């Protein structure tokens, strides 16, 4: 039965980051072309639109071309392109003079905020989805009851005929850090800018550990050196060396939208082999320019005979202990027997994100889900009597390829999902 106060929407999007922002554009375009009405709402836990706000570091640039924005690969004439954003902001000529395909992360975040502002009426900020319940009629599930909690603690209930989940990953905290997970001296890189100035590192020779061997870990290390010149920073990682990302043109073709069809058509074991083969494009790798910058910092230390940044490769973390004087980390050399124990005033985990599904809020409808692998159009496979479509964005790397968690396929994927959703609305109108 329907909740008497619930407002019904054709689509409710859980999360309003780049993936669902691209979907908002695609739904609007598809609805206009097909002359259908599509009532969409996007529920976002943040109080306003921000894309990776904790890592919008000064000087950090995008690692993919601005042409892989929300729409350009699908429709370069769209008013929501990055180029049109530059034009509207009065910076198009100046950007051309920069002679780059890679805007700063701060500017790209501003572009996304500019687009999001144009869909403000379709967004509910400051709400967290807590449960999705089935609404039944006879033996069929006809819609979903969506419960959300506001920042003030109030609850809102809405009805959705379809659902699109795109909440991103949860910050991954390795198990070895579990017992100090609530220690304020431990922070994940996702909260870096929000908290780094509040943990008392300034004006002294503080000791900081950065854990990780990828782009975020290296960016944080370089930023810490600039922000706290008296600090001693240990970069602890498992690999033999910091490795450059492979962004060469032929390898980069794996991020082309049509590569998704190729990946999805392969048997599961072959998909896994392809993903593993190309992990050096996205995981535990660093942009070459940033590696050069870090190497120059280390070289200048040698020239001046000073310390500041120390690299600790091949390091397996074996123990973590919290004490009044700091967080103690024990490591062992993976390729030898050397052991170290060091105490730090702060530990920053650049350990990536956990994208496991299903989400806890989907538990009430779990019995209707028949397969954890999504179909080609990112839809959960559900029981025949379950009418709502549930699409997941950013959770199908194993079946759809490495581009699934990146910006590269936003324009195409949003179009595919929008057309799938609009087809159900069209069928319903024909029946009506």
From TrEMBL:
One GO-annotated biological process of the protein: intracellular iron ion homeostasis
InterPro entries for this protein: FAD/NAD-bd_sf, Lys/Orn_oxygenase
Superkingdom classification of source: Bacteria
Keyword Oxidoreductase: yes
Pathway where this protein functions: Siderophore biosynthesis
GO MF entry, a single one: monooxygenase activity
Pfam family of the protein (one): Lys_Orn_oxgnase
Record has Oxidoreductase as a keyword: yes
Cofactor(s) the protein needs: FAD
Keywords: FAD, Flavoprotein, Monooxygenase, NADP, Oxidoreductase
Family: Belongs to the lysine N(6)-hydroxylase/L-ornithine N(5)-oxygenase family.
Protein name: Ornithine monooxygenase
UniProt organism field: Bradyrhizobium icense
